[in-house]
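Thread: Newbie trying to understand structure tokens

Hi all, I'm a second-year student working on a class project, and my supervisor (Dr. K.) asked me to get a predicted structure for one chain before our next meeting. I've only ever worked with sequences, so writing a 3D structure as a token string is new to me. If someone could post the tokens and maybe explain what I'm looking at, I'd be very grateful. Here's the chain:
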Amino acid sequence: MNKQILFLCSVLSLPGFAQQADPQAGQYIEVGTLEASITVGYGGIENPVRGSEHITSVLLPHLAYYGENWYFDDFSLGYSLYQSDAFYVDVVGTFNEDGFFFELDGIDKLFATSAVRNNTRPGRPQATPINLTPIERSIAYEGGISLGYASDHWGVELSSLHDVTSVHNGYENKFIAYYADTFFGGQFVTELGVTLKSNELIDYYYRVRPGEALTRIPRYSLGGSATNYHLKLEYQYPIANQVSAMINISNTWIDEDLSDTPMFDQDQYVTGFTGIRFEF
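---
Reply by user tm_fold:
Sure, no problem. This is what the structure looks like when written as tokens:
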């Protein structure tokens, strides 16, 4: 399967809450059933890495299954250690998003040759052009514990995920809060999130190493760990039995100290997809 489509599946889905809530709500999956769908439309991701190509696709597949104790949701795997009507504790595993910026088609052959913007913010290296050799980074698979609370319309989740593949040897701590309800006959979901990325993760993916720069880059600090924020909005409107119109958009704000480094040429990025969803 095309790696662009695989990435879109992982960043545009809403995993983690299906087994705790009313299956009548459109974003939930009834326990013991397989959910499969494909959305035909247009979407993709802005890649914030300097000089990289943005990724687009016309297809967005989705596959998920939630059993009594274990589940998979696209590329996320989980096993429930504790579950009540509202609270849950899961062991979870998933790919980290940072690795996809370098592994998608066209990006693993990245040549970052754009110059630093003229209207630099304080702390960003000044107008010396930055020329990089092809940058190679690997995707990590992360595993850890997820704690959550889910009511009929809202929920929160806190997770701590550590690299289990010895790629960056760091961790991510994530907190998300979401609200879901009907709106003009369709299902509406909004999500706010904060992600703390460890110094080891940041240093592996975003430090320009000796031999990767063809021109001299002024000394800079990554600022240790980094904190990103995101806002996600999704709306799904039923058209016919197992057919619906869907729009999904998410904006991520990159930590200021991190976005001021030579690896980035923007301080935020957008992912999204809109189209017609067919359920099977």
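A couple of things are worth pointing out once you decode it. The longest helix spans residues 3-12. The mean pLDDT is 79. Feel free to ask follow-ups in this thread.
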